[in-house]
Amino acid sequence: MGASGSKARGLWPFASAAGGGGPEAAVAEQALVRPRGRVVPPFVFTRRGSMFYDEDGDLAHEFYEETIVTKNGQKRAKLRRVHKNLIPQGIVKLDPPRIHVDFPVILYEV
Question: InterPro entries annotated for this entry (predicted)?
Answer without folding.
Answer: FUS1 (IPR029393)
